[in-house]
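Q: Is it fine to ask for two folds in a single conversation?
A: Yes, each is treated on its own. Send the first.
Q: Here.
A: Result:
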Amino acid sequence: MLNGGKYELDVARSALGDIIPPSERQVSIQQIIEAVVKFYSVRLADLQSKKRHKSIALPRQVCMYFARQKTRYSLEEIGGYFGGRDHTTVMHAIRTITGQREKNQTFSAQLERIEAGLIPPQAQSA
């Protein structure tokens, strides 16, 4: 109302910033990739390559899993970020990571650490 009835996205974000819990805030695929690359010590180029070695495939699947959980991108769009992979590859990654998370407490704890790194620092202190 202060702006003559015009709403701006930045104003809305700043007004709602304290209302939306950190766990529900949107993160970008780039933030997810950076957190996973850092955690697993892999290169971005490897995540986007055709390599299928487990040391690359697992971090790539973790990225796809978090991208689906934390963003509004479609399966096809997520696959496009990782070397043009098919939506069925993304579905397989999500099922694989979900299954491992349920079965393996150590892996689940690792995912929680990565997820904690996705929350912007200013959101953690709120």
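Q: Second one now.
A: Result:
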Amino acid sequence: MDLFYKKYGEGNPPLLILHGLLGANGNWHTLSRTAFQDVATVYAVDQRNHGRSPHTDRLDYPSMAADVNDFIRHHDLGRVHLLGHSMGGKTAMQTALTYPSVVDRLIVVDIAPRAYAPRHTELLEALAGIDPTAYDSRDAIDAALADDVPSWAIRQFLLKNLDYDGERYTWKMNLDAIRRHYDDINAAVTDEGRFEGPALFVRGGDSDYVTDADAPDIHRRFPNAELVTIDGAGHWVHADAPEALAEVVTDFLTRDE
């Protein structure tokens, strides 16, 4: 799996960043460019079936973790720092548990290792109801989504998945595979192994994705994990509180063990 990526900086230890469901590497462009590349050589990756990475019929955490391990080895990165948000956080956890020798420090943003109830079914159905090739502008697609997705901010996030070749619009992501494997995306991280290295779990103070009840399971799998709460941030911590998140992450990456 030849994952698409963008690279920021040079000469520092490698940091791989994994986006969440329906996202892409560009979700982390600002933080990668303004904060993280000062302490790491950043590789912001599109996960399979997302962004400009290849499409495949398989979409589960063991497969996505294998993609990350292959990426690290293909680019001869050695041991890397690994950061993931939401779905990407579960991929990062699975990678650290299955391939601990390639992960130096682990950062998980607003997700726990457990299974979650479906939260995005209506969004996925709304996207499936839109054939972007039938529209001649991004604004027209936005208007078509508005009835089912009233939040302007959420629509702008979803519309980042649009591609335009000069003649027609298409979805970059493999929407059919994402819908078919939505249960796999909501599933728990495989209950195998432990990651003994430094781990940082960051949660939004206004988010319910990571609760105090998740702490025992996190520490069982990641015994050296610390949990930090960023007040005023929701699930999209990097969008709601980018400066606070940058400070927490860069402190963790530059801290002596």
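Q: Anything structural to flag on that second result?
A: Two points. The two ends are 33 Å apart (CA to CA). Strands lie at 5-8, 14-18, 41-45, 80-85, 103-109, 162-164, 169-171, 199-204, 225-230.
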